[in-house]
Predict the structure.
Amino acid sequence: MIHFNPETRTFNLLLKTSFYAFKVDSENRLVHLGWGPRPASADSEAALISGWTVYGPDKGESSFEQQSRPDELVTFGEVSYHEVSLKVNFPSLPPKLQAEEAPHLPIRDVRLRYVDHEIVTDAQPGLSPTHGQPTRNSTRRETLRVQLNDPVQPFQVTLCYRLTPEHDIIERWCELNNLGDKAIEVEVCGFATLNLPHGTNELTAVTGTWAREFTTQRQQLPHNLYILESRTIETSHITNPFFLLNRPGQAWEESGTVYFGQLAYSGNWRLTFEQLPSSAIKIHVGYNPFDFNLTLAPGDRHVTPAIVCGVSANGWGGGSRRMHAFARERVLPRPDRQLSDRPVLYNSWEATYFDLSYDGQLELIRKAAAMGVELFCVDDGWFGGRRHDRAGLGDWVVSSDIFPEGLNPLIEEVHKLGMQFGLWVEPEMINTDSDLYRQHPDWVLHFPGRPRSEARNQLVLDFGRTEVVETIFQALDNLVNEYPIAFFKWDMNRYTSEPGSVAGKALWRKHVEGVYSIMDRLRRNHPNLDIQSCSGGGGRIDLGILGRTDQVWTSDNTDAFDRIRIQEGFSLAYPARAMEAWVTHALNHQTGRISPLSLRFDVAMRGALGIGSSLNELDEAELAEYASYIAFYKRIRHIIQNGDLYRLQRLEEFGASIIQYVLPGGHETVYSVTVHDHQLGWLRPTPPLQGLNPSATYRAVDRHDREVYRASGYELMTLGIPGEAGQLVGYSRTLYLRQI
């Protein structure tokens, strides 16, 4: 609900359990009032009306401090010695100023003043999906649009607030309008400024690199600035654009007030956390200003992507569950597939690498189908001259050397055995040994006269060129027109270097727009096509890409022990439904570590299950074990992929990860424990379960449908499930509990 009090000029955004409020002050500035949980006993329409706020030197700050007002969008002009979310260069003098003022050009000063507001139900942030496929919940939502104008320059900013009340979530973005007759240069362009209560300075985020993504990091913010960012054309392995914030020591998994946010954008982004000397907390979110340019021609309008944010009174877990539900219901495309289950996937990469043949793939297809696999994906090496990683990228045509009759004979076998067919592609990359590069050597990112640095023997295509985007789209579209392909694994295996483009500095945005446009057009033309986002593992995971894809490849690292940590970090922001997780060989080919089959499956079953092992290296007994686990997963995946997640015990606490998925109503739940570290003589506590019916009785069974425990919901929610306290490294089990 959006409430405006015309007497105090106060806006109240009222959600299920939280509120967000700001006002128009006496000088028509938009000033933040408060954000947080609503009192449990409050009336559904209770709102702030006084307009009282704390800011300025008259409130006890230093006499040097004149710029601490909590503006809804902090602009350079109102503020000059703190961080800002918007900085603009105006090229000409305002009317009535004398020419002798011209040496001061450009004018780097924006002062936004309230003009009007409206409430609409059809607003969309920038780069919203255009594929036309609805989400699970596509009901319209209210958006507050507040129009602000510069009182001197021909410049308008509209602040947008779209509400999803049931999940306590607000999406915020900006619309910039050049109302004049000269171009305006935007130096810094944020999507929003977030003002948090003073002292809310304990940050939970994730860091890492390739094969070590999503490492949870918790720390207290320093005074001044702390930055999380990406400086490349994908989301980044190094960190991910989401955060959780709370007062130090005042939050835990299921308790305390936690603020959360995540970007719906896959390009070079920045989250700047600013703690003022007063302990006020601001977060500036938006495009990374590094090598940034946005030119607004006369009459131009630019709409930024959104920051999705909210507050939970139920700790980090409450914040995670709100983000998960929002992604499942409002972001992931296509309701028919959302209401069904993500299929069990087999990928042939580790079985064959580049040594592809029809007979070799056919053998794997038959073994995969016999195990219960539902989607068979042929990985790298099927196209052009791609016999190794030094050639072929860019030539997206089926290799007649590998498949002389094309893909149809192979796909027919896949379909005959009840599976769907998928292909690996890497559309943004090119090898110099390719027909496309030989035809268009200028179609790659480069600066004239400078080196073209290869990584993984490849260069990056210039998606700032519309002809490049169109060529790649046509190649992929032709593939799906010719063959009944149900799934693309869309990979992207290097960072940018020498980012020279015909688009100039706008390349950082144009590349993302190009990727999004290809995916949107493919989905629009082929409604049954699924896409997985992969960027050397977890390098492109965010709400922007999830609006176009069905799942993401969380990490190239398939070591079960490492994946416990990676997946735990992933779960802070993203739902299990979107997380592809593989079972591979006991001896992991990346880490050299050996892990038992039970651990590998119990970890992989925490998301969308995939198999990556070479099935030709498994004997009949091992294939039967795989089949048994897959059958068990199919019984419980509707809970894992659609249920609420509770992190009952985290690695940082006791070296074990214990999680629970529970469907609304508490009738069915999945309990999963994995032990990463253990010291002899040390007993871990047994965590209580969550979300069950206390008066009901539950039967817990293993994958063989053997009953291992029976107890009331009350017992489970107070004492937990016994038997985990002293288990050793590598121990794991997954149980299915159903109300009887």
In short: The longest strand covers residues 184-196. The chain is about 20% helix and 30% strand. The first helix runs from residue 315 to 331.
